[in-house]
Design goal:
By secondary structure, the chain is of the alpha/beta class. Helices cover 38% and strands 18% of the residues. It contains 10 helices and 15 strands. Helix 1 links the parallel strand 1 and strand 2. The longest helix is centred in the N-terminal third of the chain and has 26 residues, at 80-105. The radius of gyration is 19 Å and the shape is globular. The model has no long low-confidence stretch (mean pLDDT 96).
């Protein structure tokens, strides 16, 4: 098939282009900066927030399937606020532009990235895709982020295209926060990521390679809907954080009172470590015929 990958320079988008080409697909990479584009059959250049540029680029590529991997999270290390604000715009305005362009170019299918950790912390410890999103989170920044996620999912489901939304778990592996050279690892090595309270917040992890594999499966599938793409081992912080520190040869995380965590770590990290719920991947396994090659974070989190 002819596949357009929008956001082809990202942690998932870059290896995804190669994985799709290895499967015999003709892949166009949509990027802002051609100098950063991966090796592809075609490279088209556009700023996703420029409607006319997106319409022109997607028209030139003539894709049958469009894959939305656009975010600005690579800017997190420099300006976290700006990274989240721009990512929210890419999830709303950028998604709308991409859908309009895909329809105009005659595409039939859209696969879009979302996140598996935006659910409201209520109900079972591990939630399925029907659980409500945390759009009324007490932190304005996270509420805005989840609102943008909800809008992306609404746009995809109502696009008129055969839409699949992939809610990726917390990514680890090359280029991620939890890579050995990532910000999370550096914080653990410096003893700056303590364990709040009993560390009952649950994280569902996902290796980058499995994110790529699930996306290839979604491109080649006819399944539509929202899918959690996570590993098989949702884990409370009290389990994964000490393991991660050990694998990094870092000091064991110290324990702090849970009520101090938002001030010391920021609201979102405190939420993740104390209150977040995990995400069940049963629907992706069944509908997409996918399963993680790395079923547990225990094997590769913190690896060289």
């Amino acid at each position: 098939m002819r596949v357009l990958v929008a956001g082809a320079t990202g942690v998932i988008g870059h290896p995804l282009v190669g994985a799709l080409r290895a499967r015999g697909h003709e892949v166009s990479a949509l990027v802002r900066d051609a100098s950063r584009a991966p090796e592809a059959d075609d490279v088209v250049v556009a700023d996703a927030l420029d409607r006319e540029a997106v319409l022109s680029a997607v028209s030139a590529a003539r894709p049958e399937v469009v894959v939305h991997q656009m975010s600005a999270l690579r800017l997190l290390g420099d300006d976290p606020v700006a990274a989240f604000v721009l990512t929210a715009r890419l999830r709303t305005e950028g998604t709308a532009h991409l859908i309009e362009a895909a329809l105009a170019a005659g595409a039939r299918r859209l696969v879009a990235q979302s996140v598996a950790f935006a659910a409201a912390p209520a109900g079972e410890p591990v939630l399925d895709e029907d659980a409500p999103l945390y759009v009324d989170a007490p932190d304005p920044g996270w509420a805005a982020t989840v609102g943008a996620v909800a809008e992306l999912e609404r746009l995809v489901s109502g696009s008129g295209l055969a839409g699949a939304v992939l809610r990726y778990g917390t990514l680890y592996g090359p280029g991620t926060l939890y890579a050995r050279d990532g910000g999370g690892a550096q914080a653990v090595l410096a003893g700056q990521l303590p364990l709040p309270g009993n560390g009952t917040g649950i994280t569902s992890f996902l290796h980058v390679n499995d994110a790529v594999g699930a996306t290839v499966a979604a491109v080649e599938s006819e399944a539509t809907g929202v899918f959690h793409v996570t590993d098989d081992d949702p884990a409370p912080a009290a389990r994964w954080l000490p393991h991660y520190a050990h694998r990094l040869a870092a000091p064991a995380p110290r324990t702090i009172p849970a009520d101090l965590a938002p001030r010391l770590l920021g609201w979102f990290m405190a939420h993740q470590l104390t209150a977040a719920h995990g995400a069940a991947n049963d629907r992706a396994r069944t509908a997409l015929g996918w399963k993680p090659l790395h079923p547990s974070w225990r094997d590769r989190l913190g690896e060289e």
